[in-house]
Design a protein that fits this description.
Two copies of one chain form a homodimer. With 211 residues, chain A is of the alpha+beta class. Helices cover 56% and strands 9% of the residues of chain A. At the A-B interface, strand 4, helix 4, helix 5 and helix 6 of A face strand 4, helix 4, helix 5 and helix 6 of B.
């Protein structure tokens, strides 16, 4: 039985790959696991059937037999732990790769989300023009630290891992702001992620809204 | 050899337990693992020696032999996977507990962090008085969904797990705002977490700044 994930019936970004189902699709493609996609409308996401799967009324979810998961980080980790290709075999290297997943989601993404929120939810507020540069500077601070750690390495800790998958996915949300390009090694890192065949397949699939 | 964690030499909250070392201390207490604490000053956190351990210049870190980790989520998961007491044995229940860890850190904490940031980093800005209610409403939206899911259960998914440890820790940051008390079942849930002997030990230890 193939796992089933959910994705937006109409993605708010119009297919740019920024919705969180892309992260899960990418992980499934990296490990060669076929999957089924169920599209969910904005209306249906807030209905009891979907809230039973995802208490916060979002996508993606992951169903496999009688297992149901939500949260892209948890789903990617679940996939990575059960297939070869996304986590190193060495226990210490594995723990470090998982550390980068959490760093992407809990340290790097929050200021990026705040920038996105400022534009989308507060774009019409009188303070936004003056406030946006402050928020952008908080993003730059994190990116400066990440850039210093990455240096001229290809990936964050040795070979490509679920940590890189998640960090690249988070950084991709910044491209439209221009901030990513202020850090050439991070822009090149993101481009390396996007050049992976599995990413390309995942990106194409989310554009077609299919698995 | 005991694991060593880092904590603030002087915690910005003056010992209220909101710094992220408390989450790691709590996990170590739940599983009965003694540990050593190394205190780090704000100055030293931005120096190369600490940045080598934690690229974002924060606490906590976790060192055990030649393993070095950062990110409280990753550290708690590492501890939970290697000791009994924080993750169920059943594989599906285990994956769901880990899902709640990610939900705490990537879905519930970001709007709470935004509220904290608005007060601390933008408290002196002319827009903050008008903007704070908007940010608080985004927190309420998430808490409403979480409250609906928790219902009258003691914990998020069966027995207490690392998912509850992380969710309670995240919600504790809200108490000062008064928003937590608008959701009585969540306030009671947090109180259940705080009543656990392991939490009490961790809280007392962070106040003393010791392991």
């Amino acid at each position: 039985m193939l796992p089933t994930i959910t994705a937006f019936e109409r993605s708010p970004d119009g297919g740019k790959g920024l919705a969180r189902d892309t992260r899960v699709r990418w992980a499934l493609e990296e490990v060669g696991q076929p999957y089924v996609v169920r599209l969910v409308s904005f209306h249906a996401m807030k209905e009891p059937a979907h809230l039973g799967l995802h208490p916060f009324g979002q996508i993606p979810t992951y169903e496999e037999g009688d297992l149901a998961l939500f949260e892209s980080g948890a789903i990617v980790l679940y996939i990575a732990e059960r297939h070869a290709g996304l986590l190193p075999d060495d226990a210490h290297a594995r723990a470090r790769a998982i550390t980068w997943m959490f760093a992407a989601l809990n340290t790097v993404e929050p200021p990026i989300l705040e920038l996105v929120t400022a534009k989308i939810l507060e774009g019409d507020k009188p303070w936004t023009a003056e406030r946006l540069p402050l928020v952008a500077d908080r993003v730059r601070q994190r990116l400066g630290q990440l850039s210093a750690r990455l240096g001229d390495a290809d990936w964050l800790d040795g070979t490509f891992s679920a940590g890189d998958l998640m960090m690249v996915s988070v950084l991709l949300r910044l491209r439209v702001s221009g901030i990513l390009d202020e850090f050439p090694n991070l822009a090149a890192y993101v481009a390396r992620g996007e050049a992976r065949p599995a990413y390309k397949q995942a990106f194409a699939a989310q554009r077609r809204r299919l698995g």
